[in-house]
């Protein structure tokens, strides 16, 4: 019977990790991460209703050991220890951060009447705990404004932990975001919501325990809060142009709009009276993702570099301190400028050198295997691959310009994994012959080859226990060697699921009420269109009038596709649905019981609507990834 237990580091992995290079520490990262800490975190953050720990830094107490164990790349271990320096910090007088209570930072700026909150974290529980920690050590004040630096969930979803929507609606609290924030924040998690959430469970290690041989860090921060309360309050103001100056509760800010960098909607801003610069997530203490392995549109490395360069031109000469949405600040004009230059140059180097080699005819895989950052950059921890990596960012740059196809016609129409796997197994002489070759390669420490080889057998024979066990052991060793937190979590989560099977996970679309409430009507129809089972609907055309909060829409199914047009009805449509946008959101997310409640009204032939609903797919996150 194969051994499905977790394994220690092999001698090969221990040797690789012992020889791993560390970045220079001339900038004193530990001193920076610890500087001006007022108080540590008080303890676990507990969900007020369910009672479980949403966040508990004590889970990472094993990182007190300065030396990395053989099961962890020592460079990632170093980053994990830095990200474990948690608590309330003073950035400059009147500006405070709580770090290590979420994957991201929350920043508080003292205004004339209260606090201006920048990036209220991932969950209401962690955001509320951060505000409480601030109030324990600094005079309690009301929150007068919230600023979302960009459109990723860990920078807005905890907003209800620091403000109440009634105060926003009454004009007592401003909510400021970059132009296009709301559309970007919602749309990224709608069309690909379920598959992206499933992949994120791998990328952030949410199914792994915190342990020296399991999850130790995300590179960008410790972890994602566990089952926290996510929400969204729509902005009251959007910043559309660079150079916009706002006074927010008496605090002057000058904004730089940076679309299509780290997020589709993002902005940096400068506090001229404090000589303080916020770089949002465009700069951080790691090389970031040009492509995020959880899945998202590929980012523009060239635009990213140019916007950092613009920030240098606009603000560096007047900046003494810089902070961001992750990691720790930089103090001193020279240190800030050097940091911005190195961040700028890293993204530009990846862009330019990838395309230089592409224009020589090299493919994405070939470029990723040979390209490295130059020594002048690679020695700095803040451009090391703790989150993004040179390898997968190179492939992202290539994909942005040239797509997935490398022009080799042999790769134009490949066999799917199960078919290819069966043929490779036959070519190898059967499962036992393939396993024998794989075990020999495993014993030699050639883990990348073992993973590729045994993957064919896993997809050809998913019940082959010997193959599952060997592949799990192989991915585990690759995870132990990885410098990138997400790569480590991908490998180790894959190993875990090969051993224990795919966990039962809920669907991701029947999601948070407040997120659904923020979706536009067009987004809701787009969600319904993605859920439509095209083959089953192809021979069932239909037309339906829909009135959403008084606005007319015409919905039509044609050739297995759903189209919705605003501003019109069809007098010949056989059914008319009158519904609120919020109830339509519930319906789009799969809650058909809403039609039996008092709000929605169906006039005409109800069977037409039922026919549409019966042809909608329901998504769950528990689909396999490392097995067919």
Distance between the termini: 22 Å
Mean pLDDT, all residues: 95
Structural class comes to alpha+beta
Characterize the overall form: globular
Oligomeric category? single chain
Name the CATH superfamily classification of the largest domain. Answer: Metallo-beta-lactamase domain
* CATH architecture tag of the largest domain: 4-Layer Sandwich
Spatially, the strands of the biggest sheet line up as 1-4-5-6-7-8-9-10
The number of distinct helices, counting runs of at least 4 residues, comes to 22
Secondary structure tally: strands: 21
Largest sheet: 8 strands, mixed
Question: DSSP strand (E) fraction?
Answer: 15-25%
Task: Supply Rg.
Answer: 26 Å
Number of domains: 2
Look up the CATH topology of the largest domain: Metallo-beta-lactamase, Chain A
Low-confidence stretches: none
> What percent of residues adopt helix (DSSP H or I)?
25-40%
CATH class group of the largest domain: Alpha Beta
Structure description:
- The chain is of the alpha+beta class and 628 residues long.
- It has two domains: 35-400, Metallo-beta-lactamase, Chain A, CATH 3.60.15; 519-613, SCP2 sterol-binding domain (Nonspecific Lipid-transfer Protein, Chain A), CATH 3.30.1050.10.
- The protein has 22 helices and 21 strands.
- An eight-stranded mixed sheet has the order 1-4-5-6-7-8-9-10, covered by helices on one side. A six-stranded mixed sheet has the order 11-12-13-14-15-16, with helices on one face.
- The longest helix has 26 residues, at 333-358.
Write the layout of secondary structure elements.
Layout: H1 11-18, H2 29-34, E1 37-39, E2 45-46, E3 53-55, H3 74-83, E4 87-92, E5 95-99, E6 106-110, E7 115-118, H4 124-137, E8 143-147, H5 165-169, E9 174-178, H6 181-187, H7 193-203, E10 237-239, E11 245-248, E12 251-257, E13 267-271, E14 276-278, H8 301-315, E15 321-323, E16 330-331, H9 333-358, H10 364-370, H11 375-378, H12 390-402, H13 417-428, H14 431-443, H15 447-460, H16 465-481, H17 485-500, H18 513-518, H19 521-531, H20 534-537, E17 542-548, E18 551-558, E19 561-566, E20 575-579, H21 581-588, E21 601-604, H22 606-613
Helix pairs in contact: 1-16, 8-9, 9-12, 10-12, 13-15, 14-15, 14-16, 15-16, 16-17, 19-21
């Amino acid at each position: 019977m194969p051994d499905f237990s977790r394994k220690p580091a092999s001698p090969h992995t221990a040797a690789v990790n012992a020889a791993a290079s560390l970045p220079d520490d001339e900038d004193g990262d530990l001193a920076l991460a610890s500087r001006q800490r007022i108080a540590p975190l008080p303890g676990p953050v507990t969900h007020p209703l369910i009672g479980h720990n949403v966040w508990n830094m004590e889970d990472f107490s094993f990182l007190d050991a300065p030396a990395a164990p053989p099961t962890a790349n020592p460079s990632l271990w170093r980053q994990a220890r830095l990200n474990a320096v948690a608590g309330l910090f003073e950035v400059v007088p009147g500006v405070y951060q709580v770090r290590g209570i979420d994957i991201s930072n929350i920043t508080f700026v003292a205004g004339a009447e209260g606090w201006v909150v920048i990036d209220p974290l991932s969950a209401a529980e962690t955001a509320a705990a951060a505000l409480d920690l601030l109030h324990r050590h600094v005079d309690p004040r009301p929150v007068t404004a919230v600023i979302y630096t960009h459109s990723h969930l860990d920078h807005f979803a905890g907003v209800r932990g620091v403000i109440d929507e009634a105060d926003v609606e009454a004009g007592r609290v401003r909510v400021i975001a970059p132009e296009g924030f709301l559309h970007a924040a919602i749309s990224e998690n709608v069309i690909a919501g379920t598959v992206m959430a499933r992949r994120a469970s791998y990328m952030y290690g949410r199914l792994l325990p915190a342990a020296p041989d399991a999850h130790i860090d995300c590179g960008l921060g410790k972890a994602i809060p566990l089952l926290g309360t996510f929400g969204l309050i729509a902005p009251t103001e959007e910043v559309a142009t660079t150079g916009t100056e706002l006074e927010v509760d008496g605090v002057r800010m000058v904004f730089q709009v940076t679309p299509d960098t780290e997020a589709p909607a993002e902005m940096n801003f400068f506090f001229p009276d404090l000589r303080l610069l916020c770089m949002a997530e465009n700069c951080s203490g790691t090389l970031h993702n040009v492509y995020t392995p959880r899945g998202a549109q590929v980012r523009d490395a060239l635009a990213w570099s140019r916007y950092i360069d613009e920030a240098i031109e606009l603000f560096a000469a007047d900046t003494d301190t810089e902070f961001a949405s992750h990691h720790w600040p930089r103090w001193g004009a020279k240190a800030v400028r050097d940091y911005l230059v190195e961040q700028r140059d890293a993204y530009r180097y990846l862009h330019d050198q990838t395309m230089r080699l592409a224009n020589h005819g090299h493919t994405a895989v070939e470029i990723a295997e040979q390209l490295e950052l130059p020594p002048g950059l690679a020695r700095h921890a803040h451009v090391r691959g703790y989150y993004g990596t040179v390898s997968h960012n190179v492939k992202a740059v290539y994909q942005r310009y040239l797509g997935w196809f490398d022009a080799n016609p042999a790769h134009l129409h490949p066999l799917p994994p199960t078919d290819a796997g069966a043929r490779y197994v036959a070519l190898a002489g059967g499962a036992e012959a393939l396993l024998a070759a794989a075990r020999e390669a495993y014993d030699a420490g050639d883990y990348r080859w073992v993973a590729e080889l045994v993957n064919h057998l896993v997809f050809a024979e998913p019940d082959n226990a010997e193959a599952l066990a060997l592949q799990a052991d192989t991915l585990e060793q690759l995870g132990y060697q990885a410098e990138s937190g997400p790569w480590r979590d991908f490998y180790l989560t894959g190993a875990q699921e090969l051993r224990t099977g795919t966990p039962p996970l809920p669907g991701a679309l029947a999601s948070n009420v407040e997120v659904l409430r923020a979706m536009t009507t067009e987004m809701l129809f787009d969600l319904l269109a993605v859920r439509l089972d095209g083959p089953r609907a192809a021979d069932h055309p239909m037309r339906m009038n829909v009135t959403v909060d008084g606005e007319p829409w015409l919905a039509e199914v044609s050739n297995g596709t759903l189209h919705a047009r605003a501003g019109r009805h069809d007098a010949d449509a056989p059914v008319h649905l009158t519904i609120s946008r919020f109830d339509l959101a519930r319906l789009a997310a799969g809650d058909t019981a809403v039609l039996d409640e008092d709000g929605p009204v169906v006039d005409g032939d109800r069977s037409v609507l039922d026919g549409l609903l019966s042809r909608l797919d329901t998504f769950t996150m528990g689909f396999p990834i490392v097995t067919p």
